[in-house]
Amino acid sequence: MVKWDDDIYNTPAYPVTDAARYLRIPLMTLRSWLKGRSYVTKNGQQAFEPLIQRPDPALPQLSFTNLVEAHVLRIIRETHQVKLDKVRKALDYMNQQFDTAHPLVMKRFQTDGVDLFVDQMDRLVNVSRSGQLAMRETLKHLLTRIEWNVEGIANRLFPVIEWVPEPGTDKIIFLDPSIRFGKPVIAGKGVPTAAIVSLIDAGDEIEAVADEFDCTPEQIRAAIQFEAQNRAA
Asked: Residues in domain Putative antitoxin VapB45-like DNA-binding HTH (predicted)?
């Protein structure tokens, strides 16, 4: 079984509001994933465990591992509208199959894990064939935005940017807990997007900021777009 020690990937570091903005998930939705929810059945009031297990229940912050889990869960809930109790059951199944409390962040999930998860969802909610294919494709696409370390655990996440300067530049920004405490930075530069936008807000031109940080104007524009969509979230 994979051991989850108090390393940088599992340290409480992201306020819920920041995590929701980075991932473009409604704040109330993310909070429900963290707290669980009660629901009414013919047998009375029932409750299910949170979809995301924070490293310290006494602290509100998410870990980087939690951030990656929410990144994957977003598509399952928002695109396929699978009920939370069914998702929880599917996750419990994956926990057993992978012998870990965090199967969604394992590189193994990219291979046989996706098929196992979708097959389990089909058993729980009878997903149509077209729905199964769509879920597999969306999950596999999301997993292309994750990188794993040598132990097969997610260590870098490229958040989705609504607009990118040109084709093939959709991985300009990433979050990596070993760089700048896991804040969003420009890939290959390590420059926080917040630092870039602070200069733009102060009136500096894009070209001047690019020179200041040894970035390209396209990287600066991507940082501006990423921070702008965060502010609008």
From this structure: 12-91
